[in-house]
Amino acid sequence: MPERRTSRGLLAVLVLVSLLLLSVDYRQGDVGVIAAVQRGALTVFGPVAEGFATVVRPIGDVFSSIGALGSLRDRNAALESELRRLRQERVSGVELQRENDELRAQLRMRQRLGVTTTGAQVIAQPPNSVERSVLIDAGADRGLAPGMAVLNELGLVGKLTEVTASNSRVELLTSPSAGYGVRIAATGEEGLLTGSGASPFQLEMFDPEVEAANGDEVVTKLFAGTSIPGGVPVGIVTRRGNDTSRFLRVQPYVDFTRLSVVQVVRDFPRQPSELPAEQRVPEPRRRRPPPPRAGGNG
Amino acid sequence: MNAPRLLVMAAVLLTALLLQTVLLPTVAGWRPDVVTLTVIAFALADGSDTGARYGFVAGLSVDLLSGGAQLVGLGALVALLVGWGVGRLRPYVGARGAGDVAVAVAAGAMGFAVHGLTALLLDLRQFTGANVVQGATATALWNLLLAPAIIPAVRLLSRRFGTVDGPSGAAGSSGRAW
User: Fold this and answer.
1) Which of A53, A227, A236, B57 could be bridged to A123 by S-S, CB 3.0 to 4.6 A?
2) What is the DSSP letter of A282?
């Protein structure tokens, strides 16, 4: 049957092309031709998604309330925001207390207040459920660059990975391929936070002996070489992972399934003299082979 | 394959991409995979040839619109195999009804599982074992919900604009875009 023969040939060709693409992308990681094509695709798709999002936003709200089935949404949201405001006051309170004990308290405080941000609207989710990122409606035209931190009123949301002229992709805090330097607000103990998809974060403390209680607040730590300001609320410690593991679990403040408006931190005052080189945040362990040139999402 | 037909396929793909990135909700961390559903639908409507072709293009689009952590080509490979496989099953599935939905549920879950397991083998860090099981289950449930709407819609469009290896109702050129 001729149809079958064509079908087999077609199948073979398409499979070969896929494998070829796959191996090229696997080798080149974030710097190759394919990454450039991905950025191109984003440049084209971004504005289309933006237009679509503007048209369907009212419908989208209905759909997303289906996602939050069983809750009285408005009342819930009001109560939650109230709770978060209170929590946040508490975080800054604990932070201040600790910082008052240190001589750099005022400097840090000014740093936190001096953040310059650009507001942006979340317009699209990634096309697959596994990836933890969102697309926003601001890009290089408004001064954004890869690596910038993204916040909302509750705390740290993530950081920019790809930036086109008018759109950017935010890699969410929950993405397993990202890592953030953080500390426990009350004690100042430092650790590395990595996402684990839908479940709470894993927090690996640099000092595995450290004691952390449930309910301890976790905030970002300013590291040289990153664009994440220090002191941004991240979440609270909920429990130790396994008793045997060095990992803590952290429940984020931000609800990553309901992001609407975010702030991108374009600039914040830093004190480079305060940051010795050895405090650089360790690169997240990326399993894909490292590119030959300097790259990645630091 | 005539031009209006290609346009219809492109329009279906774009609509599916927009639906799943902008509109459809995330429930318990999982969103529906409308794009793969349209691959299954075209394969059921037209057969393995169209299934593989459309699957390749659809999978590649998803890959390219994903972030850097997504391996470009993997989604294309999985989607084209899903399209081809479902197309080969077509003669054994009834013309419409429960058979279609069952195929969509099974193929969606298997596609996700193959994608996830391959990514695990390649150590991509996006997936964990639990993720693959959860995701395959979620995809199956979403497909159960959405297949009864999407498969007949795609079949209708496919009929209207003529098929490659099947009898076509109206000539593609006379078709009216909706």
Assistant:
1) A53
2) P
Taking an 8 Å cut-off on Cβ atoms, the answer to whether A10 and B53 are in contact is yes
Nearest CA in chain B to A163: B67
Instruction: Name the 3-class secondary structure at B49.
Output: helix
Q: Give chain B's mean pLDDT.
A: 82
Identify whether the C-beta of residue A212 lies closer than 8 Å to the C-beta of residue A238.
Answer: no
d(CA A66, CA A115): 36
The pLDDT of residue B175: 35
Provide the residue ranges of all domains of chain B, joining segments of one domain with +.
Answer: 3-22+31-164
Q: What pLDDT shows up at residue A74?
A: 65
> Where are the alpha helices (H) located in chain B, listed in sequence order?
3-18, 34-46, 48-65, 74-89, 98-121, 129-160
In this complex, is the C-beta atom of B128 within 8 Å of any C-beta atom belonging to chain A? Answer: yes
Most confidently modeled range among A177-186, A275-284, B13-22, B124-133: B13-22
Please name the amino acid found at residue B57: V
pLDDT of B11: 92
Specify the amino acid at residue A77. Answer: A
The answer to whether A156 and A264 are in contact (CB under 8 A) is: no
Name which of B64, B78, B90, B114 to mutate to probe chain A: the one with the most chain A Cβ atoms within 10 A of its Cβ: B64
- Residue of B39, B57, B72, B164 for testing the chain A interface, max A β-carbons within 10 Å: B72
**What is the identity of the amino acid at B21?**
T
Task: Specify the 3-state DSSP secondary structure of A85.
Answer: helix
Strands A190-196 and A199-205: antiparallel
- CATH code of the region B3-22+31-164: 1.10.1760.20
Per CB-CB distance under 8 Å, the chain A contacts of B67 are 38, 126, 131, 133, 161-162, 169, 171
Q: What is the ipTM of this complex?
A: 0.76
